[in-house]
Amino acid sequence: MKVLKFGGTSVGSPENMRAVIDLITDGEQKIIVLSAMSGTTNSLVEISNYLYKKNKETARIFIGELETKYKKVVAQLFSSEENKKSGLKVIRQSFNTIKSFTSGSFSKVGENAILAQGELISTQLFTLLMNENGYKTKLLPALDFMMIDEDKVADTHYIRKNIKTVLKEVDNADYYITQGFICRNASNEIDNLQRGGSDYTASLIGAAIEADEIQIWTDIDGFHNNDPRFVENTKKIDRLSFNEAAELAYFGAKILHPQTVLPAKVQNIPVRLKNTMNPTDGGTLISSESDGQGIKAVAAKDKITAIKIRSARMLNAYGFLKNVFAVFEKYQTPIDMISTSEVAVSITIDSVQNLAGIKEDLGKFGTVEVDSDMSIVCIVGDIIHEERGFAPKVFRALNGIPIRMISYGGSKFNISVLVPTVNKKETLQALSDNLLNG
Ligand code: ADP
Ligand code: ASP
Ligand code: MG
Predict the structure, then answer these.
(1) Domains assigned to the chain
(2) Of 84, 149, 160, 261, which has fewest CB within 10 angstroms of its CB?
(3) In this predicted structure, what is the pLDDT of residue 92?
(4) DSSP letter for each residue of 248-281
């Protein structure tokens, strides 16, 4: 069985939903993971932010606007009066849930319940539409099998066991629809896999059922060699290895949620990226094989903070780095890049939630400097075969760019540089002009 995921734009309008139906209904049994309709999760985040700020009136106005939008979708989506009624019932239920959080105090539990409504609505409407069109379709409630543990890590054992139970419980169908993004957490509350998480849902399900293939259908023809939102003349890559795709996704390529590749890699399930608007194009195939050598692509991750600890005590001392790392462990803050000199060490993090505590604790070892608004630019390829030429090529391409840190040799697949975010666009463009298209 295959698992196909359709993103926000792919289900973003009644016409697009109908186009998805044409794409998936080839008689082969499959699981279809859907995102919320495009723009919905952003609106729900906005509503939650007003509720956090106790601006209930503005929240209510936004909720009303979104509800009106969905009522129009229902009116355009269904032919029969009965299905229009059922569609409106779905909308009413979800919006009643959202509205229930506009009185009383507001917390993360409320926010997560609100954010879940986008996927809960899109999947219920889509399942109704499939059945209206005569396709034997069942909804698999993701909240019955998608689980994260206390550390917010996907509980793959739970998912594997429970999706099989859910599949057995629902009647046999040709098409199974489920929600991307949403899950339950260790306290059994509604939670999610972070923004863009529907890709991750698809790969977790694919791994759990040992799918033949995982397909990620989106609004672009595949993985490009640079970020098309910032750079001109990007080109689609036909094939990427799991390792290459994982590095690019982790370092900011928005086309894939950062954790998507791992479950597929572990089970060796190919991941195909396809364009819903241009389905005949071959897209990008991510598998255990890559094609060719050399530099494949670049990606950038924003909102990076660099921390430099300078201490004479580091000179000739052992155990210094251990103490530094212990601080990040204490504050459960992952480190992305690191570089050391004789008397200083620079580290980057992408979460500033505990920055004050980290700074205070590191201050015990030496002077601490913090640079925010930085971006990691990651250059990925099969660099092991390019040992002689890789680094010089990169540095020539980046001539004139103010590089703050460099990481080379950490893996066989990537070289990363840290630059101020204001210089990110020119860094990406320089790499496209001088390295990828040169
Ligand atoms: P979906 O809603 O289908 O999940 P996303 O917006 O999350 O779609 O991801 C697709 C978008 O990712 C593309 O429209 C493109 O702007 C952006 N993107 C960023 N980097 C890349 C890349 N390297 N290759 C392709 N698309 C990229
Ligand atoms: N709807 C969620 C988001 O916008 C998940 C996804 O689209 O993948 O982040
Ligand atoms: Mg996405």
Answers:
(1) 2-218 (3.40.1160.10)
(2) 149
(3) 98
(4) HHHTT-TTS-TTSHHHHHHHT--EEEEETTSTTS
